[in-house]
Amino acid sequence: ETGVTQTPRHLVMGMTNKKSLKCEQHLGHNAMYWYKQSAKKPLELMFVYNFKEQTENNSVPSRFSPECPNSSHLFLHLHTLQPEDSALYLCASSRQGAPDEQYFGPGTRLTVT
Amino acid sequence: LAKTTQPISMDSYEGQEVNITCSHNNIATNDYITWYQQFPSQGPRFIIQGYKTKVTNEVASLFIPADRKSSTLSLPRVSLSDTAVYYCLVGSASKIIFGSGTRLSIRP
To answer: What pLDDT does B107 receive?
Structure first.
């Protein structure tokens, strides 16, 4: 148990659907992250939140919309995705921002059809 | 942003010491060096972090030379369960870049 949970674990959605990924951390951390990991590729940092404020947006397309209502929860809202968006989406948290040790969730395996 | 370069893959045997080297020629003064381990279909797990010289914890050691342009992760007496991808990160604040990682395979 890493203390970071993600739901759902698997998601299949059509290109016209709207869905949301949820991340929750029970570690009392103040920073949360979204990463994308495509097949056989390194992790790509998407968004960073520090004390609920977005501090990093790594040129992510607007079809991905993050939301951080409090320090324990992080959402990634998805709409009109493309097949190339199929990937493992990982959430992480750390006590403070980088370079603090990050605790990762198990990820959501997303397939866009 | 400091880019990292690691070997794509390495093989070793149970009980051996494994050293994985990472190059980061453009490391900035404020950057720390961090290593993560990732098993298939799981999120990465923190192994060790350092700024300079040597750091040791219960699972690994990290050697950083004085110029900090490279670092070496040392795993003592590996076992089959150490088969994974190992990532070297260099960064600070929100600037985090995962490299391509090193796929380590341990054989009996």
So the answer is: 96
Judge contact between B30 and A97, C-beta under 8 A.
Answer: no
pLDDT of residue B94: 59
Burial of A17 (0-12, 13-18, 19+ CB in 10 A): middle
> Contact at 8 Å (CB) between B48 and B34?
yes
pLDDT category of residue A96 using cuts at 50, 70 and 90: confident
The count of CB pairs under 8 A between chains A and B is 62
Peptide bond into A106 cis (omega under 30): no
Is the separation of the CB atoms in B10 and B102 below 8 Å? yes
Chain B residue with CA closest to A31: the answer is: B94
Q: Closest residue of B to A4, CA-based?
A: B43
Q: Please, what sign has the CA dihedral across residues B56, B59, B63, B69?
A: negative
Helix H or strand E encompassing B42: none
A92 close to B (CB below 8 A): yes
The rounded distance, in Å, linking the Cα atoms of B8 and B103 is: 6
